[in-house]
Amino acid sequence: MTTWITICDTCKREDWDSASGRTDGEALAALVEAAPRGESVRVRRTSCLMGCDHGCNVAVQAAGKLAYTLGRFEPTEDAAAAIVGYATLHAATETGRVPYREWPAGVKGHFVTRHPPLPE
After folding, report:
1. Sorted alphabetically, which InterPro entries does this protein's record hold (predicted)?
2. Which phi and psi (to 5°) does residue 46 adopt?
């Protein structure tokens, strides 16, 4: 089953540099899109996940599984690798619950919300 990483491409951190020509969310999205990942993880962008106080934000989702919103990322290769690593673990589970001890260090402290799967 496919796990989706949805990245807010309009996110701007408090220290955002408008001279960069792109938002922090666009920068993070480009890094996540470029990060190596298996076929079970796909990436898409969206405009605004409504977590502006927690930017940069991503959602990790799959049909029939727990979904998560993560935030407070800096647009770095390390953050992108951690996000993809967590999504890969999420994809390998039946429920979307990944044991804490397996989380990549780069996602610890970044979880904002968890949502139950939608009823069928």
Report:
1. DUF1636
2. -145, 155
